[in-house]
Amino acid sequence: MKKKVVTTDNKEVFLEHKRKKTWEDAKSGHKCFMLYARSLYITWGAREHWIWNSFKDTSDENIEVAKLSHVCWLDVRGKFKISDLSPGTLYEVVYEIKLTKSAFGWEPPIKLRLSLPNGRVQERQVSLLQKPRGQWMELNVGNFCTEENEETGEAREVCFDLYEHGGHWKNGLVIGGAILRPKS
Predict the structure, then answer these.
(1) Does residue 1 lie in a domain region?
(2) Total of domains in the chain
(3) pLDDT tens, 16-74?
(4) Does residue 148 sit within a domain?
(5) Please, how many CA atoms are within 13 Å of residue 80, restricted to the half-sphere of its CB?
(6) Alpha-carbon separation of residue 164 from 95, 98, 117, 157, 161 (angstroms)
(7) Which of 6, 52, 142, 169 has a 20 to 30 A CA-CA distance from 110?
(8) What is the dihedral of CA 59, 178, 34, 68, to 10 degrees?
(9) Per the database entry, which stretches of residues form a coiled coil (predicted)?
(10) CB-CB neighbours of 110 under 10 Å
C-alpha cells in the first residue's frame, strides 16, 4: 500500500505501510530515502528491550520510532538496493537518533559501519556522552558513489550498522531511522 503526501517543498511518498519514505532532493533532483525504524533490523527489538512509540513526521504523518528501554548489546542494521538510488551520485547515509533526558550508559562510543557491494567498508566511532539530550540529531555513517550505469538486475546493496557490543547496559536512545541522500 502506498500513501502519498504532498508538502510545500517537494513531493514525499510513503512506502510499505509507512516503513519508508522517498522524495527528490530540491537542489539536485536526485532520489532520497528515509528508512524508518520498523524497516531496520534491531537486535532485541522486542517489547522488553525496546518501546515502539508513534511520532509525527515532518509531513504530519504518524511514524513509529524505537526507544531503547535497556540492552547491553546494541545492534541496529539497515540495507538498501543501490539500483533504487540516482545513478552517478555521491550519497551519504545518516542515522536519525535522539537521546532522552534520562539516557544512561553511553560512556563507551558506538560504532558506525557502511559496507558496500565491492567489499569496501567504512567504520567510525562516535561518543554520545556529550551529545545534546531531547533533540533529534544525525550520525553520519559514511559516503558512497552510485555507478553511472547501475545494473538493475543485480541485487547490489549498501549496508549500514549502528552498534556497541561491549556488554555495557544502556538506555534512552530513540531510533527514528536512516536517511540516504545526495551529499551536498
Answers:
(1) no
(2) 1
(3) 557 889 899 999 999 999 999 999 999 876 678 899 888 766 666 778 899 999 999 99
(4) yes
(5) 32
(6) 15, 16, 23, 23, 10
(7) 52
(8) -50
(9) none
(10) 23
User: What is the amino acid identity at position 107?
Assistant: E
Torsion over CA of 170, 173, 177 and 183, rounded to 10 degrees? Answer: -100
Tell me the residue range of the domain where 130 lies.
21-182
Q: Identify whether 117 is part of a domain.
A: yes
Is residue 129, in this structure, part of any structural domain at all? yes
Residue carrying C-alpha cell 515532518: 58
Question: Could you count the other beta carbons within 10 Å of the beta carbon of residue 128?
Answer: 21
Query: For the chain, first and last CA: distance in Å?
Result: 32
Strand partners, 92: 143, 181
CA distance 12 to 7: 7
CATH number at residue 101: 2.60.120.260
- Grouping H, G, I as helix, E, B as strand and the rest as coil, residue 165 is coil
Query: What is the pTM (predicted TM-score) of this model?
Result: 0.86
